[in-house]
Amino acid sequence: MFYTAITMDRVVFKMLVIFFSTLTLTSCDIDKVKPSILVKTRQGEKVLLPCHIASNVDIKSVKWWKNDKLVARSDSFMETNNFYLHPNSTLEIRQVTLEEDANYTCQVVRTEPWKPMTQVITVQVLCKFIE
């Protein structure tokens, strides 16, 4: 009889664990989870940040932000000393400094009825080795 009680307790415990794990999974909103790409680089190097776009997508414009500051856009020529937007929507950082350590967001504005797509790339700048 004691053994039966322990077995029942284990069954109840397992059921509670399954219930809570199911509850957690169903409360997750997958649409809001946007994976980020991590790019590690060193000071003084050149970095290319690709903006992956399907070839069958009709694009109105592509914009790149460094944190919350617009650094490049395809619908108007906007070249700065350190950033260049290639025709394939890749953002080039010409000479990486510690200030380039940031989140870069590519936004692809598509024709109606499609909503814009975004992609986040985190650039982590490592210290330059002195030889």
Automatic annotation (TrEMBL):
Pfam families: Ig_3. Residues 1-28 form the signal peptide. Coiled coil: none annotated. Residues 43-122 form the Ig-like domain. SMART domains: IG (SM00409), IGc2 (SM00408). It comes from the Eukaryota. Keywords: Signal. This is Uncharacterized protein LOC103508162.
